[in-house]
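EI: anyone free to look at a 482-residue chain?
SC: sure, send it
EI:
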Amino acid sequence: MIVDELKVSILNYAFSGKLSKTILTDTNINIIEKKIEANHNKLIENKVIKADKKVSKPIKKNYPYTIPSTWIWTKLYYAIDVRDGTHDSPKYYKDGVPLVTSKNLNIDGTLDMSNVKYISDEDAKSINIRSKVENDDILFAMIGSIGNPVIIKTEKDFCIKNVALLKNPIKDCIDNQFLYYYLYFSQEKMKKESSGGVQQFVSLNYLRNFYIPIPPIEEQQRIVDKIEELFAKLNELKPIEEDIKKLKIDFPKDLRKSLIQSAVSGKLTNQKNSENTLDVLEEIETKLGKKVTSIDNYPFELPNNWVWIKLGELVSFNIGKTPPRSDSSYWSKDEYHWVSISDMVENGFIDNTKEYVSEKAYKEVFKEKFSEKGTLLMSFKLTVGRCSILKIDAFHNEGIISIYPNYDFEILKQYLFKILPFMTKYGDSKSAIKGTTLNSKSLNNLLIPLPPIEEQQRIVDKLEQLLPLCDDIEKIINTKEK
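SC: here you go
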């Protein structure tokens, strides 16, 4: 699943120090290192844990990968009390004390008690002598489905079998949620390094010797906040991911199309019946001096409070020009920017051009009227539907239009910027030698789904959150192909 792969990609950034930065006021990592060692020695002294000869002290070499200089590597057992549950098979009963195994740990970090087996109070007491599960402990499957960490947030008594138990006695040095995400991130590595044939497993000593990177505690908390923020956004892709599977969409370009299709059909955001397009239509009709055209034959259904409208009624647009190539006096090396389709950045901004026109072209060809910085441009010949926004004043060629919305300029401009590349496929295009093309008539008649103003803003905000994730998807796919 693409969403799950993206989560791993985010965790990879997080635990290599690329998702956060150390702040000068953060706790010095040397202080944390000393606390970790002091706590480890104290646990041994108080006989909470035994000095395990199979667990070597962290050595400052051969670390798994490079981390920032303000972080340290340590082993789980030096920082965390790592135990395991029973490996025996006690007698089961119809009721009694629940016995949690690796099958009860879900990949989403939850505990599933629906298919749990029960053991006697006597067996439970025996197991709990060394493996009593308490609030804020972390469980980790050691056999079968290795991983699936779960932070315990329940008072219900239960025992564990073939499951590791991690107790964190120094939450002022290691954030529990940080530890949870690192275990989640590391589970694939552990699976690859696991032992066993039919049923894989990792040993207790393997877990105790497993390295974990430790940033300053404040940075750990910032990393957790960022992970949870990004994961929340990724989870919004889950329903769309199901549609993608059904449609057999080719990632990542068609994922963008799927997102925009959901947006323009009202499925990407929550609709509010209290909002409507009446004010928008009245403003447009006042500016046009006529009623907008009623649309009967439309491409797809819209929410009840949306309307279909022709592009030529929603906006005004200007078609560009190309000065005669045969007359070099119309061209310049650096006077006035002139945009061609090759200068247009898909879903991006134009801040430079390959060619410039002269003062003569400015006056004679373009009549001193250029497209100002902030103008939305769209190509309608050869590469139909490519949209960019100018970050400079410029002219452009005859295969591009400057678009000027007929109301609430900025909101509608941003909305059109996102959806026009998708909606142009519904235009009446003609075949050309080098591709497809629209003309003035087909541009005017291009149908646009028009939501209420508030809904337009929500769509823009949502797409700005989700579309950048498509770039990450593309990176994942390209990496796999290599």
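EI: The longest strand covers residues 400-405.
SC: 👍
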